[in-house]
Amino acid sequence: MKQGNEDMKVIKGGLLIDSNGGPPIEEAAVIISGTTIKWVGPAKDLQFPEGLNPTVFEFPHKTIMPGLVDVHTHMNMPGDGSSPEEVYANHNDFILLQSVKNAASHLESGVTTARDNGAKDRTSFSLKEGIENGFVNGPRMLLSGRPITVTGGHCWMMGGEADGIEGVRAAVRQLVKERADFIKVMVNGGGTENTFPYLPAFNDDELNALAWESHKFNKPVAAHCQATAGINSALEAGADMIIHCTYFQPDGTYKFDQAVAEKIAKKGAWVNLTLHVGLARIFLLEAIQRTRKLTAEEQERLDAAMRRRDIHHDACNRMIELGVKFAAGSDSGWGNYPLGEFQREVEALTSLGMSNHQGIISATKDAAASTGVSNLVGTLEAGKEADVLILDGNPIQDIKNLSKVAAVFKSGSLVK
Fold it and tell me: CA torsion angle for 287, 293, 298, 303 (degrees, to 10)?
């Protein structure tokens, strides 16, 4: 690093991916003034007014790209296999400290913007306030706060239970009052005990009221959907994002629904597949298998998970062919998926029909667009926040290079 004017910085590298979809720029540079990008282009074209002495960061043979945008995190959760019941039995101070640790890990891994998809009480709001005031390190946060769920529904212990048309309207208004950035709704059950993953949770009139109330306040709706009926109800209500998007029938069988997938594409709803959180279960059992023989129960779980993976990945490829819009979101914190490994989700997306470049865009430009912050982040171009990631290697050639993080800048400040 060449020391100069602290307010003006220049980042130089061997390759630059701006995430606008064009070819990378070789021997490139980014000029930053304060927290904002002022110029992006070939290093040979750098020009400064006479007397200006910027601080220069040299990263020869490395790749410059935008900071990553993860549209689905659970900062409260440890990602060590703990169930939500175990996690939320802890008091809020403990949960908040876990969130602080997770936020720092995610930022240092290259995620400069993260959308949290469900947290207990006001813990995520406290985390965001702490980051914005400089008390703790973490990504730029977008929050749902407490996910809205039926009484006893998925993630009920986070504090977002609501029933009936007036109940869901009141829940939305309270979250708007607390400055939630979007509304998360549990359309089906999920991993919470005694819920029903493949059956509707809310009635259609409740979902319609929730979406109408959310959109009245310009708050996007992200819908947790693990069944075809839930996907269809969420689309009819006007949900902006379908999370998980698994085509399960009420009896637990999986059957891709072409008509529903076409409806997703036609309505332009974003889809967040959260692939790796399921793959992590497979990888864990395979790791155990390398050290000892699996028990009959473990082998059954592994076989079932692999069958589900294959049939769901086929459905995902069909959605890609239909032109469905995908935004990368990890669901990290949940299950065996710790924060700080968002790149595993991008790798999973590229194992489908996406190219490496498309996977990168899904985790930058498209993720920012899906969350309504594309005016601020997601690409490297003048006028946007100076969120910059430096990699050892070219991720377009090998997507695993996306994890080889050499440096992270958030709003122009070097944080790693």
Answer: 80
CA distance 162 to 202: 10
Q: What is the pTM of this model?
A: 0.96
Q: What pLDDT digit, counting tens, does each position of 139-189 carry?
A: 999 999 999 999 999 999 999 999 999 999 999 999 999 999 999 999 999
pLDDT per position as a tens digit, 229-245: 999 999 999 999 999 99
**CA angle (129 as vertex; 127, 133 as ends), nearest 5:** 120
The residue written with tokens 């110029």 in the block is 39
Q: What gap in Å lies between CA 183 and CA 34, rounded to an integer?
A: 32
CA triplet 379, 384, 387: central angle to 5 degrees? 65
For 200-238, what is the HEC assignment? ECCCHHHHHHHHHHHHHCCCCEEEEEEEHHHHHHHHHHC
Q: How many CB atoms neighbour CB 296 within 10 A?
A: 8
- Sequence-distant (≥ 6) Cβ neighbours of residue 415 within 8 angstroms: 107, 108, 137, 408, 409
